[in-house]
Amino acid sequence: QVQLVESGGGLVQAGGSLRLSCSASGRVFAVDAMAWYRQTPGDQRELVAQITRGGSITYAESLKGRFTISKENTPSTTTIYLQMNSLKPEDTAVYYCNALSTNRFYWGQGTQVTVSS
Question: Which of 106, 109, 78 is nearest to 8 (CA)?
Fold first, then answer.
């Protein structure tokens, strides 16, 4: 089992920045990749960025250059961050942390990001 706890969402004006954090605990040694997804009402959850155990990074094409994913490991936890710059109203969504471990996906509870115009 992997437990995910997210933090860092909130309300920000357009053009501002936010940093999201997601701390994974439990069987973190078996986590192959972690990612951020986002979802707006009525839409499917979409990938924002992913980082693998080896450090390979993938971004949604439309977000390259504004969002940055990074990772920090300790012996018992892995924390990923999503630095979001130059935020736009269309970035408003619930952002979810995701972990892939032994072919199973784990999800965080989600954190709301609201960008006002």
Answer: 109
